[in-house]
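Data deposition worksheet. Section B asks for the primary sequence of the deposited chain exactly as it was used as input, without tags or linkers unless they were present during the calculation. Section C holds the resulting structure in token form. Section D is free text for depositor observations; keep each observation to a single sentence. Incomplete worksheets are returned to the depositor.
Section A, Depositor: J.P.
Section B:
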Amino acid sequence: KHWFSLFNPRQRAEALMLFEVFMNCKTWEAAKKNAIYFRNVMNEGEFVYAIYSAVIHSELGVGIVLPPLYEVTPHMFTNSEVIAKAYTAQMTQVPGKFDMEFTGSKRNPEQRVAYFGEDIGLNVHHVTWHMDYPFWWDDSYGYHLDRKGELFFWVHHQLSVRFDAERLSNNLDFVDELYWDKPIVEGFAPHTTYRYGGEFPARPDNVDFEDVDGAVRVRDMIIHESRIRDAIAHGYITDAKGDKIDIRNAQGIEYLGDIIESSVYSPNAGYYGALHNEAHILLGRQGDPHGKFKLPPGVMEHFETATRDPAFFRLHKYMDNLFKEHKDSLPAYTKDELEFTGISLESVSIDGPLETFFEDFEFDLSNAVDSSDKIDRVDVSASVKRLNHKNFNVNFDINNNNDEDKSGVVRTYLCPSRDFHGEELSFDEKRWYCIELDKFWTKLAPGSNSVSRSSSEASVSVPDVPSFKTLTSQTEDALKNGEDVDFSDFTRSCGIPNRLLLPKGTKEGMEFALLVAVTESDDEAIAEESRSHSQCGIHGEKYPDSKPMGFPLDRHIYDERIITSCSNFKRTLVTITHQE
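Section C:
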């Protein structure tokens, strides 16, 4: 009985040994028996990580829906005060539902956006993405993770710009990046506890970075950053054999993502280091960098808890600026690259208000407390406020002036119009802060085409996975009645919660630019049946879009007229209102 962190080499090796056991099971019966056995003899965290990762990657896992992680390991998602109340309820045999507050107080400006970083659905998305595209993945497990490095950039870029939109919605400026030679401005007190191993360590304000004994040195972070910046400036990286790999092209972001993370795919981890992974360790250990107090890992050393810490978004703004430095070194798209010959996007309209609100959400805490055959379980749950929005449809009127059908990709972005000071952002400034709302394929017949897309269909998002009780009760009822049960909508947990599709906005109404581009599709396979493919791809298959992620906003736009003059682009202003 011990805490588990993926960043601990020994614990990771043990978890991956069990993962390999599951991956090598040839039959469902073998997988089931191994799961039953190892559940009782393995570290709890290692077992959960191994089985969730195996369900994602094994052929035997296709179609399996596992319960949401916040019900399986609630300690990682719930305040320690709530856990203590759940224990009291269990001991006194009095059922209870307990309100969960966000970390901190109103004296801390970061408290205004804690609802985003501490959203349990967002936490599940983050940890699941790192299971879908783990840094330890080797193709010997069965297949190649297509465009993994670029996806590392894109999914964290989108987390960063969404966080910035929430900050603007709460009268806060864009988050500033982290600097190795400057103090960590915001401290953090997690108010969470391990099931085994004590409290998550806190970090006071304005802490200077210190080396973590036996793990990470600050000067190595600076050296690795310098080598990466040199690679970006020169336009190539050097692989382990000394050969140059050109990155001054559309594929360069893939290599850059691999070396910044760094993953097994890195062409030269020995030289470029593991900037991202070691930064998580460095930040996670600043409460006890020398092991003086034998504190357990901090929240930054777990993908489930990392986004709770404001330093997470400072770290990823720092990473994002490295990626931007590379993207800005590439030539701007030409009009020929942007146009879709014969296609005209005539209008974009929205049915329904763009309105957000907070709602109460209840989740089960049964796994947060110990049980015994001598004492009955009582119902214990937590209730937390979470952001949601009213459903809406986006309507597109598209003319195909060609004599034949065309296949198009409709790309929808939501971009802040103004900065924290109320100054209007230039087109080139705002394009880097744009939120990807949706991306889908459509056949365009000659003449007029009217296409409508529901917010619930957004390619970046997933619905809430039903609770464990709902999954089991519906399955038992179906078996009892000889019926099928359909959980196909919930086979993926990787994806922004659909509730968070829109940023909060303001009571008075916050203006955003809705930018839509209809581009030509040259892809054979269309991923319409795969949820959240924009940020999570398709398991074991090629990423379903040949264009760079973020196209056409991923490169400099020196003159917005090159965009506005293209008939396949449309920009309109929308307002997001928050209902208090």
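Section D:
The mean pLDDT is 95.
The first strand starts at residue 96 and ends at 99.
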